[in-house]
Amino acid sequence: MDARFTAEQAEIRRTLRDLLRKRCGPEELRAAVDTPAGHDPALWTALATHLGLPGLALPEAHGGAGCTVTELALACEETGRALAPSPLLATAVLAAPLLLALGTGAQRDALLPRIAGGGLTAALAVPGPALATALALTGHDPGGAWAGGGRAGGVQARRADGGWRLYGQVDQVLDGHSADLLLVAAHAGGFARSRVLLFLVDAGAAGLTRVRRTALDATRPQARIELREVEAELLGRDGDDVPGALARAGDGAAACLAAEAVGAAERMLERTVEYVGRREQFGRPIGSFQAVKHRLADVHVQVQAARSAAYYAAWAAARGEAAGGLALAQALDALRRAAAEGVQLHGGIGFTWEHEAHLYVKRAAGDALLFGPVHRLRAHAADAAHVFEEAG
């Protein structure tokens, strides 16, 4: 493994950091999350159309840049630093890999160039609070019981009029209220022949209701999706290995999420170091106290370790290897620690709504709820590696 960045990778980081520094400061961030979309459409246009972020990891044949998960993870690290709300995670990290892996030739040709060009956003709808399980981050269930098990609940699919119709509800869909296209995981075949399939649902389909929900982390807007006999198009073919495709997409997603958490943790650490360097107590900056230095040094070490894990996970995902779960656990731990120390060392101001520190605390807690928790990420990785099995 060559850990050095190429000139192109370094340029992606530099350009994106400069743009977000100008366009996504604290005031712009607060204004963006309060909009109906939950993000700044002008900023998304700049990220998608001008910089081409949604197409970074898509093949050139489908309008993408032909890069790998590594480049996408580097982009996510920079958006994580700014906590920039955008459809990047839902569209490029979760939905696009599934379209690429499962879509028919016609579906890929029709959808992926639009995603790469920024003209189409997408969201993955997984029933119940089971996104981490569906992506095989905290467990692997090839039977798809996480989607309802073919019984009442979840989303059910049935054939009708030569096509498919969906009925059910999904409660936690990232950017589901604003996405142009939904990828809905549903059970088909009833209980006896139950199987999980993915379906394409247009945002304007009859019978579809989307309501933005109040979320712990406002920078990750979520929606409740209700489907009442909604016409849908099967993604790929009946019989495709949907759980397997979700698991492979999950490992790349975990690498990107880990990089994103590392970016947020590093930025929180930078803000804290800057603050303790100018906040005085007993006639000297509090950053000069040995106890404060030790605490921040520990955070720095944890963040750097998480960065190494995230970069390795991205490199491994590009080679079809799985390392994302452990990297995500390490990064979420680092973000939680950096946010907690930042709030405390900022003193009274760190606890106020007006300061940005609480946004990083909420990102750490929100990601752990959506994609973790950390102990389950580690436990599943240990099980997959047979760590605790007795030698035969």
From TrEMBL:
Q: Which residues form a coiled coil?
A: none
Annotated Acyl-CoA dehydrogenase/oxidase C-terminal domain ranges read 255-382
Q: Does the keyword Flavoprotein apply?
A: yes
Q: Which domain of life is it from?
A: Bacteria
GO molecular function terms listed in the Swiss-Prot or TrEMBL record: oxidoreductase activity
Q: Which cofactor does it need?
A: FAD
Which Pfam family is one of this chain's hits? Acyl-CoA_dh_1
Q: Does the keyword S-adenosyl-L-methionine apply?
A: no
Sorted keywords for this record are: FAD, Flavoprotein, Oxidoreductase
Q: What class of enzyme is it?
A: oxidoreductase
Tell me the protein family, please. Belongs to the acyl-CoA dehydrogenase family.
Q: Which protein, by its recorded name, is this?
A: Acyl-CoA dehydrogenase family protein
